[in-house]
Structure formats: structure tokens, C-alpha cells
Amino acid sequence: MDDDRRLSDLVREAQGGDRDAVKAIYEIFAPRIYNFLVRMLGSREEAEDLTQQTFLIAIGRLPGLRDANQIESWIYRIARNEAYQRFRRKKALRLDEEYAGSPETSDLIERRLHANPEELLLTGELRQVLQKVLLGLPPRSREVFILAIIQGMSYKDVSAVTGRSLLAVKTDIYRARLSARHELRKYLGCGNPIGKGRK
Amino acid sequence: MTGHIPVEQLSAWLDRELDARDAARVEEHLQACDTCRQSAREMSEVDAIFRTAGELELPPFLWARIESALDRAPARSAGAPWFSLALGRLRIPAAAAASLIIAAGGFLLVRQGMESHYQKRTLSEIERARIAVTASLREESYNPFFRPIPADREANPFSRDKLDPGFNPFRSATGAR
Questions:
Q1: Which among B46, B87, B91 has the least Cβ separation from residue A184?
Q2: Residue A63 has what DSSP assignment?
Q3: Chain A: nearest CA to B107, how far in angstroms?
Q4: B38 FRET partner, CA 20 to 30 A, in A115, B89, B106, B119?
Q5: DSSP state, A146?
Q6: Is A61's CB within 8 Å of B79's CB?
Q7: Using CA atoms, how far apart are residues B53 and B47, in angstroms rounded to an integer?
Q8: Do B50 and A192 touch (CB under 8 A)?
């Protein structure tokens, strides 16, 4: 509750033009926004650009934000819109090719079939496999999976960010979960994705 | 609960999105059903593996880039005006700033309109003068470089008719050609 009040105060100060408050807001949300965008887009460079763009837009529109408590879903909404605009511009999601098309990735996927998640984690390759799995999901499922399951956002907040009803969000999340499980099985080559390695 | 728990329900239970009564029912069912328990475990393992990968660190200097962009183009930011940041500690109230902008805009418009009127007049005068000069140049008398071709060929010392057919200007005086 104190955190909420502190955040509301920060927002109000930022709306009043306090640059330190703006920076504090950036420091609270930027890491999550950046990670959301990396996972949505599959590219760190693009995520960096869009994080910058998201905050520039957010800072510009901050004086118009009426409910300071909504700032998180509000910033996420801006980031999401930017990501979708990028998708539309690219049309065919070239991002998928960045991972799926490169020979390195193919080798990686081959090796996946003989590894277990713990080994992958140790070799630092797990992140790439997971990114590949995420990019295999349609953007609509990908975003709810990232928001609700990876970043632990409540369904209500996911609904606020995506603009979909709570019921639709609930359905999207379980579908995304099933798809992710299915994809993960494919790459890890085992019946139980996180079991104790391949049997 | 008869049969199995719908996956959608199980998924919401994992995310603690069920109300207390539904959550209790799911938990009671899971105690007795291996299939649903296995299903719930698999889903939660998928969640765990994605969370295990951790978060990426924010690139350094990103804030510096944002701040620099704000300083470069404070008024260009989308949406509502960022007057306060742009004007530092002055914090002119938005209404006053808006009035100033409207007044300045109005003045500029009027000025531009007047300028445009005078520009049009000047341009039309220049055009009229240009047309007059062009027309006058068509007349030979106004062309200072005009030299009429002599009607009388006698006036032309190089006229073929005037030259002695035996005269060769390139023959040297001593040459016996």
C-alpha cells in the first residue's frame, strides 16, 4: 500500500515536471517493459529502441494520465502498441526468421534433443530455446503468456493492458500455456518438459 | 466434482485467479485425481522453466538516451504538452502557456497573410515589367546588339562578288605559285 502511495506521489511529481520523479518511474518500469519487449520481438536491439520510444511517448503523455494508480498498465499498453506497430510494419514477423532461420539456431535445436533444461540453463542456451518457443506462439498468445505467466501480472491487469475481457484473457492464457508446453516438448524432446531430463 | 477439471480452470488456479470457493474445489479434486494433478504439474513446470531464464538487464545508457531526446525536442513529445520539463523550474501554468501560443500563432498568421498580400503584389508587378521588356526586345530597335545585314552587298568587303577570282590571300609574296 505504501508502495502504491509512493508511486502515485511519484506520478504526480512527474506530471508536475520533476525530472527526478520521471527517472524514478523509468527505473521502476523500464526493466519489465524492456523484458516484455525482448520476449515479444525476439530482438534486444529492437526492444531497446521500443523501450526508449515507449518512455518518450509515456513521458510526453504523462500530464494527461488521470489515474496515477493505472500507470503500470498504461505504460505496458503503450509498449504493446509500439510492438504491434512494429509487427504490422514488418508484416511477416521477420523476427521468427532471426531465430528459426539461422544455422546456429538449428544446431541449437538439434542439441536440445539431447539435453535437459538444467544443462541448457548451465550453458546459457535455455533463454534462446525459450525465446524460440515464445516466437512460435501467435502474438496474442505470446503477450498474455509473457505478462501473466512470466511477469506474474494479474488477469485484471492483463485485461487492462490488452483491452480484452477478463474471460477472453483467461481463455487466452490457458491456450498460451498449452501451446507453450507443446512447443517446449518439441524442442526439449522429452515427454515431461522440465522432468529430470530425457528418459 | 465429477470428471476432470477443465484445463482453463486449472490454469486460472495456477495463477491464483480463482475465488476462494472455486480454488478449494479444485484443490479437493486434485487430491483425488492423478490425471489432473499431472496436468497441473506439467503446466506449472512450464511456467517454472520460463521463469528460470530470468530477466535481461536493462541496457546501460538507455535513460541517458531518453533524457537527451527529451532535451533535444521537449515540445515534440507525443500527446499532452511537456511544458514543465521544457521550462525547467519556471513551470508556467499550461493555460497561460496555451494562451501565449494561441496569441503568437494568431499574430504570425496575420503577419503571414499581410506578407503574402505584399508578396503577391510585388510579384505581379515584376511579371508585368517582365512581359513589357520581353515584348519590347522583339522590336529590333530596342536590341542594342542588333546589327542589320547590309542590304547592299557593296558594303561587304568580303562579298564573293567583290573578290578578284585570281586573288589568293594565302599566297606568299615570294612564292611563285
A1: B46
A2: G
A3: 27
A4: A115
A5: I
A6: yes
A7: 11
A8: no
Model-level pTM?
A: 0.63
pLDDT in tens, A73-105: 999 999 999 999 998 887 644 545 544 444 444
The C-alpha cell 515589367 sits at: B129
Q: Name the one residue in this structure whose C-alpha cell is 486434485.
A: B30
Please say if the pLDDT value at position B88 is more than 70.
Answer: no
Of all residues in chain B, what percent carry a pLDDT higher than 70?
A: 58
Q: Which CATH class is domain A2-90?
A: mainly alpha
Taking residue A20's Cβ as centre, other Cβ atoms within 10 Å add up to: 10
**Domain A94-188 CATH assignment equals 3.40.630.30:** no
Cα–Cα distance, A187 to A180 (Å, whole number): 11
* Grid cell digits, residue A32: 519489465
From chain B, the residues in CB contact with A79 under 8 A are: none
Q: Where exactly are the structural domains of chain A?
A: 2-90, 94-188
Question: Looking at per-residue confidence, does A108 or B7 come out higher?
Answer: B7
- Alpha carbons A26 and A78: distance in angstroms, whole number: 14
Instruction: Judge whether residue A144 has pLDDT over 70.
Output: yes
Long-range Cβ contacts of A108-111 (<8 Å, 24+ apart): A109/A187
Distance, CA of A27 to CA of A43 (rounded, Å): 21
Contact B155, B162 (CB under 8 A): no
B52/A17 touch (CB, cutoff 8 Å), yes or no: no
For residues A79 and A57, give the distance between their C-alpha atoms in angstroms, rounded to a whole number: 9
How far is Cα of residue A60 from the mean position of the Cα atoms in its chain?
Answer: 23
In chain B, residues with a C-beta closer than 8 Å to the C-beta of A193 are 42, 45-46, 49
Does residue B25 surpass a pLDDT of 90?
A: yes
Count how many pairs of residues, chain A against chain B, have C-beta atoms within 8 Å. 132
Please report where in the chains the cell 514488418 appears, as a residue: A90
Per the CB < 8 A criterion, the answer to whether A52 and B62 are in contact is yes
Q: Which residue has the cell 526492444?
A: A47
| pLDDT digits 0-9 by tens, B106-132 | 777 777 776 677 777 778 888 788 777
Facing B80 at nearest CB: one of A63, A184, A193: A63
Whether the Cβ atoms of residue A43 and residue A95 lie closer than 8 Å to each other: yes
